[in-house]
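Preliminary data (for renewal application), pyridoxal-5'-phosphate complex.
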Amino acid sequence: MIYLDNAASAPVHPKALSAAMPFITENFANPSSAHTLGREARLAVIAAREQCAAAIGAQPEEIYFTSGGTESDNLAIFSALGFNDKHKIITTEIEHPAILNACKELQRRGLEVVRISPDSEGIVHAEDIAAVIDNNTALVSVMAANNEIGTIQPFAEIGELCRRTGVLFHTDAVQAVGNIPLDMRVLDVDMLSVSAHKIGGIKGAGLLYARKGTPISPMIFGGGQEMGMRSGTENVAAIAALGTAMTEVGRNIPEHRRRLSRLRDMLIEKLEKIPDSRLNGSHTDRLCSNVSFSFADIDSEALVMTLDLMGVCASTASACSAGKHHRSHVLAALGLDENRIDGALRLTLSDQNTEEEIVTAAGIITECVARQRSG
Ligand code: PLP
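Predicted structure:
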């Protein structure tokens, strides 16, 4: 099997698994308990918070563990309800549904939401955001990198703009962590979302970074865990794994990018040879792990099924949510016609992929596209 769906879920890193195992087997204690086992579990959560903070140049008390990227995004967006009586959120048309649907709910509750369009490569321009920021703006939320087309946004520039204009800035970095260096000491980012299962951790864990002084407010009430921001007994095993995964993906980003960019470009070069194919997103401002293509006159849902039978795991534009397929809002925002949207295939790489796999997968994709076209 050749696994090219790493943006949906990446393999668990062996060191992350080792970090998690003791808290599934011998130490099952509640980290709030006063006894030795409880204290050990609590120490594991503290250590993971320190690891996560160190990986992004943050302070441990700025890290709030959550159940994943979706919850982190919601925590950031819903916190905007309490930002100084301001009633406007600026985001983009190409965010993950975790942002778009949270904003839709806030709109239903009376807030104004402005969604900025990207250009034809999927890049959101800071000038377009500057044009709509006003005194009523509570929050700007722009993802660091897009999950479907891999476009890297000018989030540092957008952060600077927000800092200058006194508006809080959140970035969904779920797909960026490990692929782009993220240092909160130099970036003007107030809140940042991370998901564990995209970076070698375990599903059901994530974090929200919130810079000291950012007025976030809880969505879940209870025992007051996570400094009162996220009640509920901590998922100690997954949190321990997340701490280790954050350390591991931050270890050598330049080398990771060099190696993956070479594989990515090799795959792009081979798929560009397929007649009527087109790379979606940017050639230059692109995650080293993302290849998104559209093939004219192809039903990519059927293509993904055929590829599966041939041993290649891929997605259509994105992994469909809860098994339902929707036409990609990201590709539509880029201005692609329905034919190109319906023929979109997303291939996402990890460090575990080899050159041999890329060559084999490209051959299989070329063959499957030709076969579907010949009917
Ligand atoms: N944000 C982005 C950009 C994502 O790609 C995803 C997952 O695909 C999420 C948020 C949601 O993360 P999770 O699956 O941890 O809820």
